[in-house]
Amino acid sequence: MAPPAVKKPQKTKPEPPKRKSERPRAASATSDRARMETFVQQFFHKGAQLTEELLQENEHLRKAHLQLESENAALRTQLASDHAMRDLLRKIKQLEKEKDELLSHVHEAEMQSTRFGARFHEMEEELSKLANVYVASYQLHSTLNLQSVVKHLKELLQQLVGAQHYGVFMADPSRKHLLLVAGEGIDERKLARISLGADDPVSPFAERVFLTGVARITEGPLGHASERAPAAVLPMHFDDRVVGVIVIHTVFPQKPSFGAVDFELFKMLGAHAASALAGALLYAAADTKLPDATKLSSARQTPVPS
Amino acid sequence: MSAEYTCLVVEDSPMMRQLLVFALSRVKNLKVTEADDGVDGLRKLAGNKFDLILTDINMPIMDGLKLVKRVRSDPMHKETPIIIITTEGSTEDRQRALQLGANAYITKPIQAPQVIAKVKELLKMSG
């Protein structure tokens, strides 16, 4: 495509100086120039002002940009931190769960330990009870010597049961009297021989237990036990027959009440004391001679009474 | 292997002695020697070192108080812990025994767990 034609400026002749009559026109030109200059000055002033404003705006935008970048960086950091936080929270939750599980295990182990502890305690008590009964029974039957049997019986009552004032009574052959065979702290003038069936019995509890065969044992505190209200009265059996009673009037102050082991000892005494005493009496009556072994041999053939 | 402890039980009543020995058999690694009375106790103590002595107070020939006094005057057993066993609430005997150098006391009727606990305490055994 051809370039557009450029119009050549025409040469004009310079205008001749103006005459007097042309003077208003000159004044007007001056005024125009002044206006032009004013306009130019104003134009440049405005331009400078605009430039200044632009620079300020630029500076403002630069600062805003910097601020936004900073905010952006902070947000990025926060975002990263949020992730870390989420991870941490997840970890905490997991650890909490593990802690709960562990606590549950610990609680279970504690419960089991408590159960074992209680069971162990029970077994220890049971063992102690058995040991007491075994030792008492062993000692009671370890001799046929009457004095030794009585001594062991007294020791058993004093040291294992904790009896302070007590009496061991055996019925006479007529079964009308209970005779004191061993005791401690007993008023012998009054209780050496207890008549049964009297209107005003000396020891009503001893009589009742002998006649019924049912033990009378104080359950609970023993502080108020006395001769009139004994701590325990126990029947002594020989097979199914009651042959005597053990009366425990009082116990030592450090024994507040009868425990499980005492009840076991009472049962043992009821079943074994009379036979130990009777055996020792028979042995003494036979001048400490052992029975003829041939009789024992023949007893093997004799049926046991039902 | 755990250390073995030795204990001398001085008690004239065979029943109580048997019961004490039975209770002490529940203490691990404890070897028990028995003596019938104070004199027998002294005989067993002569030349033998024990970690613990359990003695009754009321005994014939030589009672527990005399035994405690003798034991404490013997340099060999000066530091040996002594437990006395007293009947009823015999406070005077107990006080006297403690003054003479006994370390602890147990009152009759004895309870095996109580004996075991006291022995373990004096022998500084755990459990």
Question: What does it look like?
Answer:
The complex is a heterodimer of chains A (306) and B (127). Chain A is built from 6 helices and 6 strands. A 6-stranded antiparallel sheet of chain A has the order 3-2-1-6-5-4, with helices on both faces. Chain A has 306 residues and is of the alpha+beta class. Chain A has helices at residues 23-140, 146-161, 188-191, 204-212, 260-285, 293-299, and strands at residues 163-171, 177-184, 193-195, 216-217, 232-238, 241-251. In chain A, a hairpin with a 2-residue loop joins strand 5 and strand 6. Chain B is of the alpha/beta class and 127 residues long. Helices cover 39% and strands 20% of the residues of chain B. Chain B has helices spanning 14-24, 38-45, 64-73, 91-100, 112-122, and strands spanning 5-10, 30-35, 52-56, 82-86, 104-107. In chain B, helix 2 (38-45) runs parallel beside helix 3 (64-73) and helix 3 (64-73) runs parallel beside helix 4. Chain B starts with a strand and ends in a 5-residue tail after the last helix. The mean pLDDT of chain B is 89. The chains are: A alpha+beta (306), B alpha/beta (127).
Keywords:
heterodimer, A: 306 residues, alpha+beta, 6 helices, 59% helix, B: 127 residues, alpha/beta, globular
Short description:
The complex is a heterodimer of chains A (306) and B (127). Chain A has 306 residues and is α+β, with helices and mostly antiparallel strands. Chain A contains six helices and six strands; from the N terminus they run ααββαβαβββαα.
Multimerization state: heterodimer
The radius of gyration computed from the alpha-carbon positions of chain A, rounded to a whole number of angstroms, is: 62 Å
Low-confidence stretches of chain A: none
State the helical fraction of chain B: 25-40%
Strand-residue fraction of chain A? 5-15%
Whole-Å distance between the termini of chain A?
Answer: 151 Å
Reading the helices and strands of chain A in chain order gives HHEEHEHEEEHH
